[in-house]
Amino acid sequence: MTYQKVVLISVTNNLMKLILGSASPRRLELLAQIGVVVDQIIPADIDETPQKGERPKPYAVRMAATKSKAINASASDLILTADTIVSAGIRILGKPKSEGEAVEFLTLLSGRRHRVTTAVSLRKGDKIWSRNVTTFVKMKNLSDHEISAYIRSQEWQGKAGGYAIQGIASAFIPFISGSYSNVVGLPLTETSNLLVGAGYSISLEGPPL
């Protein structure tokens, strides 16, 4: 079952309407950095449970596509959806459901490299364009004090893997290889290429200072 809730309406110079199928403020901010202002935000309500034995990248790709298909729009509208996951080996680390699970995730990631994968889907009518991007991230060895303090910050809530690289956790990350915006939640190079390829005009002016 899906619900359709219009959260934001704005005006663009494009003839086609751009719908963001995500309630993530981070994705909205990332799009604004390259001058993209969406016309509507319609979060997709889907079952995000991984299938038995499902690997991280196929899971992210399936989620982005499922979100896209769950949103009703006219054939001329562009629907942009994405799904970002953190994986340690083949284990998918979603959004922690509790403080205990957030501690488990941070303990698991402490001192090791992991992957952050974002799958992006752009749909117009029956046509779908998609990309997926993986970034390698290294987290330093975290002390019990650092984990406890981060849990108290509440920043882990709603974040894949239990951390946000653009926030306090930036102090925990000594190394990344790949797209930074991908780790935040939307790989901008690939997303902008998809939009332009679909005929959407991007100003690249960014938000006003």
Describe the protein in words.
The protein has helices at 25-33, 56-69, 99-109, 144-153, 180-184, 188-197; strands at residues 18-20, 40-41, 78-88, 91-93, 113-124, 127-138, 175-177. With 209 residues, it is of the alpha/beta class. The longest helix is centred in the first third of the chain and has 14 residues, at 56-69.
Number of folding domains?
A: 1
Radius of gyration: 17 Å
Regions with little confidence, pLDDT below 50 for 5+ residues: 1-13
Question: What is the count of DSSP helices, taking H or I runs of 4+ residues?
Answer: 6
Mass-distribution shape? globular
- Helix fraction bin: 25-40%
Mean pLDDT comes to: 91
CATH architecture: Alpha-Beta Complex
Output the CATH topology: Maf protein
Major beta-sheet overview: 7 strands, mixed
Q: Which secondary-structure class do the elements indicate?
A: alpha/beta
